[in-house]
Amino acid sequence: MPYGPPGRPTPPPRKSGGGFLSTLIVIIIVVVVGGLVRYAVNTGFDGAIGPRPTTTYTPGSGEAPAATGDNPLVTDTDGTLVPASCDYAPWGTQVERARAFFESAAVCLEAAWKPVMERNSLPFEAPTLSVTASTAGITTPCTGSTSNFAAFYCPANKTIYMPISQLQTDYFRDNWIVYLSVFAHEYGHHIQAQSGILIKANSERRAAGVHSDRGLELSRRVELQANCFDGMFISSTSDGGSLTADQVGLATEDSYGRGDRVGDMRDHGSSENGGRWFENGLAHNLTSRCNTFTASASEVS
């Protein structure tokens, strides 16, 4: 199924809305909770380095464990998003209509993820949502005052930024499933932050060097896990009757169109692996099947 209007070629592979490095890199250093946070163009986890873990996890304590592959969220073999019928507001490129759409999606995402977090004695706080026409004049703790960013999640203020101008609406038109999938990916980064996965990945990446082979591999593991969490949500809302088979097919095809391009920093993973991890979440709807931190190097290349 083509992404855009008939006769238009399939677009080249793209970073997801959460990409943290692309060919043109802008590095901004900000101070967040006593730690350094580094971001670049198209941020999401997405290059977040900091803050350092400061707590010891005790189940039921309300604190998140600083853990990745052995995090309770991904060692839970029954961690699934229960199918639900989501009442999505009509999509539109006008700010108010787009905001209403993403707000309705956020309600459904919270209903899907909160029980899984509670089941594993993990804290949950809904993210803040910022929907704007463009990136002009937007200042965030993660990007500073630069206007060169796409949709992304900023863990420093627990906010998902969805600038309409960066969603390729001229290409995808009213195929709102694509925008929903991008949003679900960014929400996946919020789940990583809430569960403690992001804190641990940040710490290890900082220790290894953010641009080292190990540092970039950690970034890919984070991004591909968010792809898998995205697939889980699309599966759950599809099973709940809110998406058609054609829409799920389009979201799946789109997942294979994102990833590292030639010349990019190897921070997101190949488009093939991006699609595979999305389909893994889609097919199984289990957090344990999204454990990218125990996957082989070739699965996160």
Low-pLDDT runs of 5+ residues are 1-14, 16-56
Order of helices and strands: EEHHEEEHHHHHH
Tell me the number of helical segments per DSSP (H or I, 4 or more residues long): 8
Largest sheet, in brief, is: 3 strands, mixed
Estimate the strand proportion. Answer: 5-15%
- Total number of β-strand segments? 5
Descriptive overview:
- The chain has a 3-stranded mixed sheet with strand order 3-5-4, with helices on one face. A two-stranded antiparallel sheet has the order 1-2.
- The protein starts with 27 loop residues before the first strand and ends in a 17-residue tail after the last helix.
- The chain is built from 8 helices and 5 strands, in the order ββααβββαααααα.
- β1 and β2 form a beta hairpin.
- It has one domain.
- By secondary structure, the chain is mainly alpha-helical.
- The relative contact order is 0.18.
